[in-house]
Amino acid sequence: MRKLVLGFILTLVAGLATACQPPPTARYAIQDLGTLGGVSASADDVNNAGHVVGWSMDSSSRQRAFRSDGVTMTDLGTIGGRESSATAINDAGEVVGGSLVTDNTRNHAFLRPPPGPMGDLGTLGGTNDTSYARDVNASGEVVGGSYNTDDLLHAFQRGPSTNNVMTDLGSLSQGGYSTATAVNNNGDIVGNSENSAGQTRAFLRSGLYTGGRMVDLGTLGGSTSLAADVSTSGFVVGSAFTASGQRHAMGIVYGGAMVDLGTLGGPDSDARAVNEAGHVVGRSTTSSGDGHAFLHEGSSMVDLNSLIPAGTGWVLHEATGINDHGQIVGSGTHNGVYRPFLLSPAPEASIGDASVTEGDSGTRLATFTVSLDHTTSRSVSVGWATSNGSASAPGDYTAASGTVTFAPFQRTRTLSVTVKGDLAVEANERFTVTLSAPNGVTVGDGVAQGSIVNDD
After folding, report:
1. In sequence order, what E strands does 153-290 have?
2. What predicted TM-score, i.e. pTM, was given to this entire model?
3. Within this chain, do residues 312 and 385 fall inside the same structural domain, yes or no?
4. In 3D, which of 288, 275, 282 has the Cα closest to residue 304?
5. Is residue 422 part of a domain?
6. What pLDDT sits at residue 435?
């Protein structure tokens, strides 16, 4: 759910680092969402249920809006024409985007409820009869752009607050263009508009903070800025040009100064979305000039390619959406083919301590529980091995190693180490079991103590 963010403090105390706290660095499981039968597809947004929307080529080489639950990709149809594309989905499952109408020459904004079908939202009355929806909030407020009766491209809003009539939001200047890109749960809208100097600027339109007026959010020293997303508590992300002419990802809290989010070492970057925790995703060039997807973690930008397992065949080029569970969608090349991806935070594996009474003879088992902090729909595993402490193998216990495998949606597993009994009077002893070689998981508390309790 890339547009809905809660809980920010609306004061900029020490730059962006105080506006969004960094999450722990995590590895992600990556999933190729596939296509509708064509060669390529692209993901644009993900809601808190993990449902993804975007576009895909189908087997007839048509571009079609899709929704994916991570297992099945569904063609959302059109409003009469050949092609369509989805741009956003809210937690109710309502999808918005654009579709060609019956003559296949005009594009109209659409709203599709979960059962369907796709509904035509109309236009602002321009002669070219064109509109496109960019976002929908929890209340069903839709924003985007359409040509009005003066044949100017203007931002629009349509929903309960406008009696479901498409309403022209105006622009920053008389005769200037505008388009809305995001709306939060408070009804605050951001987008881009031409100012009186003919420059494109990010804008905010808020009933509470701007009195319902469109306000220029400024730049990073250059002449242009672009807003892509806004949180419910007032954090806007996008991009802006610097004084040296470079385009950089930016963030700005209502009433604060625009902050440069940096790059991955190259000259340009662009923020696309932000989640409830303030984690920002987008695209940036690297020092070698490649375009890579990024995750901005408070004060640092991280290449998402470094957070997925090696050897997957993926190159992640852009990240376009992030939900409140940290799932990220975007597009990249998988074994050279352009595909949409879904990144899900890998579960964290931890192991608990175990204790066993030694006994006078024979053997007993010390049983350790390995658990995941959350389940996953895929099979994952983690290796383990014993090591000596005050207890030594092979006299006190049998050295062992192995792999614990979790089936899909399984959260706990156990492993056992053989402890040997004796008649010696001695202190309690310990050995260690350490987790290693994670596959599809990260390791949290990865060291456990095995206690051998003397009973002689």
Report:
1. 153-158, 167-168, 178-183, 189-194, 200-205, 214-216, 221-230, 235-242, 247-253, 259-262, 265-274, 280-286
2. 0.83
3. no
4. 282
5. yes
6. 97
